[in-house]
Every structure is written in structure tokens, then in C-alpha cells.
């Protein structure tokens, strides 16, 4: 049942971010675009769904809480890979709070920022369950428990080198 639920969540998210067609054909990934290519996500229309915001390169520094070497706009292929791997990553985490996130992951709002750290292209994912917060504004929150968490996704290895789940005050 859990595997089916995770598969359905990933499929629903893939559809939501435009892999199932979103009306504007100019956003469709190019068939032979290399993984990590930022050419398919336009900087003028980075939102693929109301609960997901791909931060354009020119706004990325404001959404990433640390200093990066460079920024880029992640494309749909990258976001789809991250979304597909995230439930399994959270489910296998040693942090017991991650286990509470997985069943309600589809309800979290998401912000994705392309960052270069130590020469590696990564995607910083910022997740929050507060429905009053906008995905199009930076949301760097302290406390709040598992309602707020972040990940770093290494594009080349398709792994998550970092998970940070907020604590409670």
C-alpha cells in the first residue's frame, strides 16, 4: 500500500510540474537536453503548480539561506528526478521526524533553487506546510518542527547530501 501511495504521489507531482502537459508547450523539456540543463525552464514563468515554485536564477540568492558559488534555474527533468527520489530518501532517513513527513509530503509547498556548491550543481529544496505562506516569496523559517524542512539534491549523483528538519521552540 505504501509503495503504491508513494508511486501515486510521485506520478501526481510529475503531472503537476508539467510532465503530463500544462498547456504551454514552450515549457516542455527538449528530448535530448542533458541532465542538469537549465535551458528548458524559462526565467519569466518558473511556476509549474500552485504549490511548487522553481526559483529563477535572477531571484535565487534571496531564496537560498547560504552563499553559493553560482545559481541556475533547475529544469523539469531535474525537478522530476528530485521529486521521484524524495519519498524513498525520507522513508530511509535515520531521523524519525522524516518518517512523519513522508505520508503527508504531497501537501507541502515547495521552492526549488539551483545552486552550485564546491563546483557541484545542486538543487536546494525548501518545503513548508503552512498554507498561508507564498511559494513565490523567500521562506527561511526557524523552528516549526517537521512542518518545515530543506534538502540538497546532488544532480549528478541523484542523491540527497543534506536533510534539515526544523526543531520546535
Detailed description of the structure:
It is a single chain. This protein is of the alpha+beta class and 169 residues long. It is built from 4 helices and 7 strands; from the N terminus they run H-E-E-H-E-H-H-E-E-E-E. The chain has helices at 2-16, 60-63, 76-91, 96-101, and strands at 47-49, 52-54, 70-72, 109-117, 120-128, 148-154, 159-165. Helix 1 (2-16) packs antiparallel against helix 3.
Brief sketch in words of this structure:
This protein has helices at residues 2-16, 60-63, 76-91, 96-101, and strands at 47-49, 52-54, 70-72, 109-117, 120-128, 148-154, 159-165.
Mean pLDDT level: 74
Q: Oligomerization state of this entry?
A: single chain
Based on CA inertia axes, which overall geometry fits? Answer: globular
Number of distinct beta strands: 7
Low-pLDDT runs of 5+ residues are: 1-48
**Count of distinct structural domains:** 1
Specify the biggest β-sheet: 7 strands, mixed
What is the CA–CA distance across the termini? 35 Å
Work out the radius of gyration: 15 Å
- Element-by-element helix/strand order: HEEHEHHEEEE
Q: Level of helix content?
A: 10-25%
| Strand residue percentage | 15-25%
Overall structural class, as computed from helix and strand content, comes to alpha+beta
Number of helices: 4
Amino acid at each position: 500500500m505504501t509503495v503504491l501511495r508513494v508511486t501515486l504521489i510521485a506520478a501526481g507531482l510529475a503531472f503537476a510540474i508539467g510532465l503530463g502537459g500544462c498547456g504551454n508547450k514552450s515549457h516542455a523539456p527538449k528530448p535530448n537536453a542533458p541532465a542538469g540543463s537549465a535551458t528548458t525552464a524559462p526565467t519569466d514563468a518558473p511556476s509549474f503548480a500552485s504549490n511548487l515554485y522553481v526559483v529563477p536564477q535572477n531571484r535565487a540568492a534571496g531564496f537560498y539561506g547560504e552563499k553559493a558559488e553560482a545559481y541556475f534555474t533547475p529544469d523539469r527533468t531535474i525537478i522530476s528526478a528530485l521529486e521521484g527520489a524524495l519519498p524513498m530518501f525520507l522513508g530511509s532517513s535515520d531521523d524519525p521526524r522524516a518518517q512523519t513527513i513522508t505520508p503527508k509530503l504531497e501537501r507541502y509547498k515547495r521552492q526549488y533553487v539551483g545552486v552550485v556548491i564546491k563546483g557541484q550543481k545542486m538543487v536546494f529544496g525548501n518545503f513548508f506546510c503552512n498554507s498561508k505562506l507564498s511559494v513565490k516569496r523567500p521562506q527561511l523559517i526557524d523552528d516549526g518542527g517537521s512542518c518545515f524542512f530543506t534538502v540538497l539534491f546532488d544532480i549528478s549523483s541523484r542523491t540527497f547530501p543534506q536533510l534539515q528538519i526544523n526543531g520546535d521552540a
